[in-house]
Amino acid sequence: MILDNPFPPDPRVENEAVTLIQQGHEVFLYCLDYSQDQAAVEEVNGIQVRRFWVPTYLKSVSALAYTIPYYHNYLHKSIREFLEKEQIDVIHVHDMQIARAVFRVNEKLKKPLVLDLHENRPEIMKFYTHVQSGLGQLTIYPSIWKKREFQFIRAATKTVVVTEEAKAYYVAQTGRSPQDFIVVPNTVRKAFYQTPFIDAKIVKRYRPYFTLLYLGDTGERRGLKTVVEAMQYILPEIPEIRFVCVGKSKSDPQLKAYIRSMGVEEQVEMAGWQDFRLFQSYIEASSICVSPLHRNLHHDTTFANKVFQYLSLRKPVIVSNCPSQENLIHQYDCGLVFQERDAADFAEQVLKLYKDAPLRKRLGENGRRMVEQHMNWDISSTQLNALYRDFAQKIG
User: Fold this and answer.
1) What are the Cα distances from residue 84, in Å, to 81, 91, 148, 258?
2) Running DSSP on this structure, what letter comes out for residue 196?
3) pLDDT tens, 287-301?
4) Distance CA 331, CA 172 (A)
5) How far apart are the C-alpha atoms of 6 and 56, rounded to whole Å?
6) Distance between CA 248 and CA 219 in Å, rounded?
7) From the centroid of its chain, how far is CA 64?
8) Three-state DSSP class for residue 188
9) Which of 10, 79, 229, 373 has the greatest number of beta carbons closer than 10 A?
């Protein structure tokens, strides 16, 4: 596996690697080290990690990965040496930022190459602050990233995506067969909901309130302003309402200013980023969990991992009408859907659940059942396991 970031943490990379190891494969992970404070060679949960030190400026240069070739030229030699030294049989590259160098190295090695697209990077980067800046607009071109993405998909042995919607999109855009893709959603491991760690202090803190919870990145495109705006409709009906955001982003100052302008500082809590081990406690303390994403080509074709975390702990959810999450909610009857950016519609769904405790319980139970029977990691990784069994049989 090839990763363009430090490791750990990366839940998707770790989940995939550990799953393949459990199936009898040996997994070596090439990753970057900007700090030089981690071992160059280490075993992490059975993963043979090989860290390659790179200067910190390379992280900034990575934004120009498809503007100038410096980033890929810098990494090319270490990737080639890693693949040759460890005698790798199959190359699995995570996301497309580092993909150009990997495909270039493989022109000579001619190994099976799996491209794992964690997200639609060309689409989502349009919303990055540094891309929207004046200098970014002059130097970073999502259109070129998209062209390269399609090129890599056509060249890959197989491409891994996170939803059926993403698969349909890439099939239509690249002309590759549906059989050239496998779908591996970012679902939760059974341990997350079977043996959750619950901090009683957190649960007690929110007991007096009817709490809405959001976990994750708090950037503009996540739709949190819609929830804040909806408070004006909710407060008269639910004086004890609280909206808790566990996460952060560079746009937090703007979000906090908006909260102040709406006069709901007491009702909206920006809790900042918390240790992952506390996520279950915040979910347990909540009444409803939300994923109010704005619609765009990326959000329309991906799952927010938080949705599976919410549902696994029997919480009803309210999500915006991005097709991937809307389809999930309707298929398994585990939440309510509102029109993205429509604060009044969001408030209507909150009030519906507030006034109907049996509905909240039924939706929550349906969500837990869905995770147990259809959307936990053991089930989600089925296609990944089948792919590598096929590779192993062909390699012998």
Assistant:
1) 5, 11, 25, 53
2) -
3) 999 999 999 988 989
4) 24
5) 12
6) 8
7) 22
8) strand
9) 79
Q: What DSSP element (H or E) covers 113? A: strand 113-116
Residue type, 208: P
Burial classification of residue 205, based on how many CB atoms lie within 10 Å of its CB (0-12 exposed, 13-18 middle, 19 or more buried): middle
Structure token pair of residue 218: 């708090």
Q: Tell me: the pLDDT tens digits for 314-339?
A: 999 999 999 999 999 999 999 999 99
Distance of CA 131 to the CA centre of its chain: 20
DSSP string, 280-305: HHHHHH-SEEEE-PPP-TTGGG---H
Confidence grade of residue 26 (pLDDT, cut at 50, 70, 90): very high
pTM of the full structure: 0.90
pLDDT the model gives residue 154? 98
pLDDT band for position 269 (cuts 50, 70, 90): very high
Bridge partner residues of 320 (DSSP): 338
> What does the pLDDT average to over 11-32?
97
- For 249-283, letters b (16+ CB in 10 Å) and e give bebbeebeebbeebebeebbbbbeeeeeeebbbbb
Strand order in the sheet with 41-44: 28-33, 47-53, 41-44
